[in-house]
Structures
1.
Amino acid sequence: MVSVHVIDNAEDFLHACAVIASGSGPIAIDAERASGFTYSQRAYLIQVHRREAGTFLFDPPAIGDMSQLFTQNEDEEWVLHAASQDLACLREVGIAPKRIFDTELSARLLGMERVGLGPVVESLLGIHLAKEHSAADWSTRPLPEPWLTYAALDVELLVDVRDEIEKLLIESNKLAWAHEEFQATLDKPEKVLSAEPWRKISGLHTLRTPRQLAVARSLWFARDDIAQRRDVSPGRLIPDSAIVAASRTQLANKAELIQLKEFNGRASKSLLDTWWNAVVAGLQDEQLPVMRVPSDTLPPPRAWADRKPEALERLQTAREALTSKAEELSMPVENLLTPSILRELAWAPPSPITVVSITAALKKQGARVWQISETCALISNAFVEADQKLAEEVAEDS
């Protein structure tokens, strides 16, 4: 059983950094956030394990800057499970790995049926890893001891998992592919913040007028401001469905607002004045939002049949080829090639369609070298086949 002592001060943190630096081999690291409970996506607990050093639990909010942990070990390999989920919150406290080994991503490349940490540990090490606290509110203080034990075990076995997975990657000739994927994960740019984040309100599409949208926008910003100040998940104040209901209904006063059945949530009554003021502001807003914002994103494939049937034919033909290839390589087709890349190419393929032009297009879209090598000829042939099929159908009809 590992110690579940949480390090929450600078002196103990610096001592732990020195001990970790004296260890050997890769460094396993994991972070626990409080998604669904807090506004921020910060780490509320960071767990680290290294052979010959031990397991350490850190309290990031109490420690603050944790860059010393990285700078003393910056050239080492850091082992994470689903690195894309944790890198942002680790970087936020100064931990910015240069080399990683992602056990979850590796499990996908190997075609493992279940890629969560628990199933992977059980499959490779024969150890059952309970995951009952994975959705806990990690901003809780003090953290219960069972949670800490659970969190420590997440990293204590991770280096052993890494070693077993590496053997399998070597046996299947996928280790080089995995390293390309790891680097792509590190290099992936941060998401660009939306200019109008309120448009992501679930159910917003049911509103029919710009005035209704203005009310929804006003309520969203009121909720977001409170949530940010209190560091609480916005949906824990009032859900999106409450915003939509209040925006869709013609309300004369706040009494009607609170009587609205769909206007619920933990803070629907306690912050009633705030919500009503937001409704009034939306009703009086002279800068009405447009109903639809122009977008350069592709329409969903289900709409392609009417808008661009030749693109749909290319997409479907190429999908079949890539699905067969993915089965041959024992991996999910989405890991063989990101679906959005194939959609982009099918919608607007290079001209002429050749292996060379498809290769260049794949590279431009961010496909990895190994993905391009495995898919470029398949996509090129599929696109040519699809276009020929359509041309023959047109010739027959004329």
2.
Amino acid sequence: MADNKIIDGKLIAAQIKKEIATEVANMIDHGQDAPHLAAVIVGEDGASLTYVASKEKASQSVGMISSVYRLKATATEKEVLDTIDFLNNDPEVDGYIVQLPLPDHINETKVIQSISHNKDVDGFTLYNIGLMQLGEPCYLPATPYGILELLRRSNVEISGKHVVVLGRSNIVGTPVSVMLSRKGIDATVTMCHTKTKNIEEITRQADILIVAVGQPHFVKADMVKEGAVVIDVGIHRIKDNSEKGYHIIGDVDFDEVYKKASKITPVPGGVGPMTIVSLLYNTLQAAKKNRK
């Protein structure tokens, strides 16, 4: 029997994939090419390789074209920028991502801001961030958009609720705070970070608590209000003696917080599956927009 407390990211992601696959099939039936999502990866970072492989698999599962541009860790900044220039001008590529982190000798900001905003399906360029701040249509960052869809599709009331966001990164904390406070979504948002005083007093006021601090089991039960909705963005590999050699936990002490929450995302299987699906959604939108 399904646990009504658990927000099942895998299940929701599978529903959205079906919706995307239907639209892609419809495009192909009408004589259009399938949407094409590309990725640029520099070096051999394990987590990055895993993510890009998942993206390829997910793209293919909804009928999209997927391609990966692999550069060595020793690639120069110019070689990376040349690859971006090529993708910006390739009419066959609808959207693409540059997998982070990049090696230290490459300027991450310079690379990201070189991506054409029409193909920026990660929603990281200044152009798309500016549109998001203004509440205008744009490519929304994948993880924050995934969180929004998890809440919506789990029938969590957001309008008028107090949302507390732990973490202020440009990838999750900051954009999700902006998105939730925009007109039409209408949450009241408090953002906390490492310099926030009396953080437990603030988190206990949250109707919805979004945790993206990057610290294992940072949130304990005494930091959570009875009946709160808890979204855990963290993901940490903890070494153990199992066959795999590790297990995965989040930023929230799940077993303890579960008892108090009305709804909670597990780790793994909560926010994670939604990030890649959001990327597919953005690529579908890019294909529709760029081909007009």
